[in-house]
Fold this sequence. Notes:
By secondary structure, the protein is of the alpha+beta class.
Amino acid sequence: xxxxxxxxxxxxxxxxxxxxxxxxxxxxxxxxxxxxxxxxxxxxxxxxxxxxxxxxxxxxxxxxxxxxxxxxxxxxxxxxxxxxxxxxxxxxxxxxxxxxxxxxxxxxxxxxxxxxxxxxxxxxxxxxxxxxxxxxxxxxxxxxxxxxxxxxxxxxxxxxxxxxxxxxxxxxxxxxxxxxxxxxxxxxxxxxxxxxxxxxxxxxxxxxxxxxxxxxxxxxxxxxxxxxxxxxxxxxxxxxxxxxxxxxxxxxxxxxxxxxxxxxxxxxxxxxxxxxxxxxxxxxxxxxxxxxxxxxxxxxxxxxxxxxxxxxxxxxxxxxxxxxxxxxxxxxxxxxxxxxxxxxxxxxxxxxxxxxxxxxxxxxxxxxxxxxxxxxxxxxxxxxxxxxxxxxxxxxxxxxxxxxxxxxxxxxxxxxxxxxxxxxxxxxxxxxxxxxxxxxxxxxxxxxxxxxxxxxxxxxxxxxxxxxxxxxxxxxxxxxxxxxxxxxxxxxxxxxxxxxxxxxxxxxxxxxxxxxxxxxxxxxxxxxxxxxxxxxxxxxxxxxxxxxxxxxxxxxxxxxxxxxxxxxxxxxxxxxxxxxxxxxxxxxxxxxxxxxxxxxxxxxxxxxxxxxxxxxxxxxxxxxxxxxxxxxxxxxxxxxxxxxxxxxxxxxxxxxxxxxxxxxxxxxxxxxxxxxxxxxxxxxxxxxxxxxxxxxxxxxxxxxxxxxxxxxxxxxxxxxxxxxxxxxxxxxxxxxxxxxxxxxxxxxxxxxxxxxxxxxxxxxxxxxxxxxxxxxxxxxxxxxxxxxxxxxxxxxxxxxxxxxxxxxxxxxxxxxxxxxxxxxxxxxxxxxxxxxxxxxxxxxxxxxxxxxxxxxxxxxxxxxxxxxxxxxxxxxxxxxxxxxxxxxxxxxxxxxxxxxxxxxxxxxxxxxxxxxxxxxxxxxxxxxxxxxxxxxxxxxxxxxxxxxxxxxxxxxxxxxxxxxxxxxxxxx
Length: 972
């Protein structure tokens, strides 16, 4: 009933979108585009009824015909081109995803590898134009509020969504996100081309239990690292708001974090519209169990500074009912609703909705989508994003001769969950074949599966495929499948009969299988299998597709053959599965070896499948290449030592053997429609590579701590703190040119110049990177910190002086002893080079600044402002605000002046004890404070104890036992 009702409402809303403005509304002040936006917003707000205002809080803001207001929806995805949106008009499934056919640029991490802010601003501008184009065609589906870019830091390369972010470094992330969002927003001082929303605030860098895990953020990490990535685009007025992340931070769901008002809105004078992530308000009463009722949850969400609810797909009724209940119960005032609606309306006005012709960007039409200029920019960007990891002289390829192109990604371009549909495809083989003579194959095994009684698994030959059955006694093409290896035993099966992938036909417990998928795809990736040894030369086939967001398995996971010959999901275990004989029709490695043996060079194209090798809701467990792909590389290299490996994936990969043995290695992300041209341009030398890595590439999975470890300082994560020997350092990337760095000149404040000369006979780009290191500090400081960079083009023999100016305030770090930013006086190393490990020139500068004094613990001190810790967790002081330390474990406060302290007092919740010790967690105990318990974890009480021998200057340790939360304390 509700579904039918909503469809009727949707139809009415759609009609209202195109309805003319009522004559009575045309003269209202909010229609006067010459008035300031603030005045227009207040006029419109005053004309809305309370029910109308409440209706605007949901993602699908309904039309209000009496005021000439059209439907407005948030959430067009646009990470590297306009991707998809939801269709309110779709029948019978309102809210179905509509994917745009538009210009597809390299994945976001690839955009950042260009280290070219001006280029990325151009990309963002094109994306904004194409969103406008689609909006002109169907404003109900294609909204102008864009959910991009993602600025979560790539602190862990196993994150399933690594492809969506830019870098492990907050400065680089800030520069690229500001450029991309700024291009999307446009250059008009009063109007927006689109309204970019930064994702996902804050500390969202794991998919495992992503709506239940809490990211422990000590203040220094929060301020110096995670917040620092979000601030630049907001401060530059390039982005118009942020999206709240799914995770909790310090025990509080980000959906109700006070940061949205207390932190994010302090970065700008512009009005921001902040949004929830999809379904997150319901998580507050569901998986997070943070509130008892949706009214409480929605009230807290609004009060925290989120303005738009992305929840329940297109059905706004639960949100409207919950907000109305919160108003009736006094949890919200109408002024709270007004505050959120005021922000929403401000963005709508800036988008030109109430201006004649839709404002300065209202005339953009579908003609811009995938225009020749946009296609050319896609090719340029994909070429500039390529990173040359290694080159022992194998590249560029010689123009004459034959190149054997082999590998599972040679003939395919893959898209990802946040990609638009490719308007055309230039594969690596096609791109290379347009430049040189090419041979080779995909180098994948072609197999047939035969039952023990001799019948073969058979697929349909039509475009839509057919249910797999067992029939026939010979392995014809309709009974052959190409096996693509994605690592850890997971494979996909492409039917030779029609070139489509085998997938589960439906979600039934005894589903059939059909060869109909153009590629592994969709939220539930139903095209994944493993082969398990069943003995006597037979295998059983296990279906391992993503079942639900929690990867629920069962009851049936293994393939069986029914009496009628249909291949079904029919057994919960291998014992009940049908055994198959896996016949190899042709060996991928044998084919590759044969094709490369006589070639002048071999190019092996390997990499990932973005829907399988980690993605939203699924982290990676390894950075390694698929085992079959590694074996292919080794076999090809043995057959032809002049081998080039092209790795096409979205994350750092442990290419240790390849680095030691392969002459040349290129890396690119899944780079969109022009991937093949870009790869070929670099391989033949028409484009001189200058892409640089934006993450540390580690040698082994063992170099990484647990994926839920967010403390980059203590865990020594990212290039800033990592003390090991990386495979490829942050900022690494080679060129066909060589560059000489001249003498470094440093002025105070931090103005740096360095001459850079192209010492080769080939024009090229050098990415000149400026790092600093603080020699003396009270606190642990990074080994290096990126402060500035420039991508500089130099002709052969040309010299350019590269100039940087770094404000001294940028050298500040968060002083936990006083809760503020501080620039410490002292000597700072200034390092300029081609990567974080390839420093060409060094200098030093004396900086005038502060000396952090000894801690004064006689003042009320937050327990979370510790210097070091073990075992403790960081938790929410209350549901509204504040961070506390939860035991058991210890926290320390270094260099504290005790001044003959006599009493320790702490504000605590729960039951347990605090031992006050000096010098270490097992050092001299000077007192113990005990809490017998409080009513609950949010009920705090004061505990105290007398101190003995607490005098002088010491490192003070609080050793917490029991289930005790410590908010604040003092020693007086």
